[in-house]
């Protein structure tokens, strides 16, 4: 459905510096209707790769196909039209503050070339209903919580009835409870509308909760790929430190002074380093569940555990 072939994006050199190979010869196939997670350290090229998919950042070389259309072969009006099949949401929500919620959603339809105001209103109302935020249609973004803003952003992205939803750190600005709610909506949108979701995040829990497939990026390259189901298979041993973190039990700090352990956030020195013997997947998916009374760590656990102030997913 989404096919990236030998995609590279190089940013020109600043004075006296080398060019930045933000994305370096990435080939990736993302099946229709799946949820693809892209994870990696800061600066690995995740956002650039995501923006390569809708050509918000046109690759320097390589081919991007979405639903059979080669976007990299298009320009002007043809590219604008093809982009309507791709919605996008961002960490900062990117809502227009002096427009109401409904007007924000209608605006995306206007940009998509929908001239009939009545149709814009109907489609906006439909999109707001999908994320259960119809009652906020007439309020301004400043009157919304972060989670509500992101739900409006999802509605705005869905209004043009896209086949693909690109998510750039969609929950990084949200607390864990609100994160769980937003992830549940993304899961619903994927399952009920069949929308292919590509999500860039540095939040491991988001990947674990939502993704079908995982791609790990380092220095502009996809260095490891696996099915998310592998994360639950005993003995699964990813090669990268991020992969190993995913199968670990999360952050683990030795307060007795024993140093960094497998589940801990890798230090900068770990980035791209070969697996060390002390960083094996020794805390696999069979690790002990949280003791009773502790907060659940997965998004779905959080959904179950909390009656969110956001009103919660359907
Ligand atoms: N418009 C740009 N001009 C120049 N360099 C850029 C531009 N956009 C990104 N870069 C550089 O490209 C590299 C990859 O950036 P990118 O934002 O894709 O990484 P990332 O993995 O998403 O990082 P983060 O998790 O911090 O957002 C970085 O070195 C960044 O500084």
Q: What's the SSE pattern?
A: EEEHEEHEHHHEHEHEEHH
Question: What is the number of helices?
Answer: 9
Question: How helical, in percent, are the residues?
Answer: 25-40%
Classify the fold: give the CATH topology of one domain: Rossmann fold
Q: What is the residue-mean pLDDT, rounded to a whole number?
A: 84
Count every beta strand, where a strand is a DSSP E run of 2 or more residues. 10
The geometry reads as globular
**Judging by the overall fold, what is the CATH architecture of one domain?**
3-Layer(aba) Sandwich
**CATH domain class name of one domain:** Alpha Beta
Q: Radius of gyration over alpha carbons? A: 20 Å
GO biological process, one term: amino acid transport
Organism: Nesterenkonia xinjiangensis
Pfam families: ABC_tran (PF00005)
Keywords: Amino-acid transport, ATP-binding, Cell membrane, Membrane, Nucleotide-binding, Translocase, Transport
